[in-house]
């Protein structure tokens, strides 16, 4: 399994705009083959920070996701709302039952 975290820091007053722009991304991504989960969280420590937490079956599923129109559209749509770059981390994990 591949786990992705994307820390999104909004410019002052722009967090709600970013949240509204995530709806299509989240809905469309959850329908993609290989998507296990795709969620957005807000920080309890910093009102301008959001965290996208994604789980994918494998690296190929993630790679295909990053080529989708909804992914590209989202990245373009939020660029003026961001305070700096989105901080993305990718992890490989295996289930231990």
Q: Indicate the low-confidence ranges by residue numbers.
A: none
- On the 0 to 100 scale, the average pLDDT is 97
Structural class: alpha+beta
Q: Characterize the quaternary organization of these chains.
A: single chain
* Structural Rg: 13 Å
The CATH topology is: Alpha-Beta Plaits
CATH class: Alpha Beta
The proportion of residues in beta strands is 25-35%
Largest sheet: 4 strands, antiparallel
Helicity range of the residues?
Answer: 25-40%
The count of β-strands is: 4
SS element count, helices: 3
What would the keywords be for this entry?
4 strands, alpha+beta, Alpha-Beta Plaits, about 100 residues
Report on this structure.
- This protein has 97 residues and is α+β, with helices and mostly antiparallel strands.
- It is built from three helices and four strands, in the order βαββααβ.
- It has one domain: Alpha-Beta Plaits, CATH 3.30.70.100.
- α1 runs antiparallel to α3.
- The mean pLDDT is 97.
Give a brief outline of the structure.
With 97 residues, the protein is of the alpha+beta class. It has helices spanning 15-30, 59-65, 69-78, and strands spanning 2-9, 35-42, 49-56, 87-92.
């Amino acid at each position: 399994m591949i786990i992705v975290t994307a820390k999104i820091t909004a410019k002052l007053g722009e967090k709600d705009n970013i949240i509204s722009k995530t709806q299509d991304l989240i809905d469309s991504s959850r329908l993609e083959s290989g998507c296990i989960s795709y969620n957005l969280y807000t920080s309890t420590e910093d009102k301008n920070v959001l965290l996208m937490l994604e789980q994918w079956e494998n690296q190929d599923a993630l790679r295909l996701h990053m080529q989708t129109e909804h992914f590209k559209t989202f990245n373009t749509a939020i660029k003026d709302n961001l305070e700096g770059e989105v901080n993305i981390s990718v992890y490989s994990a295996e289930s231990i039952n």
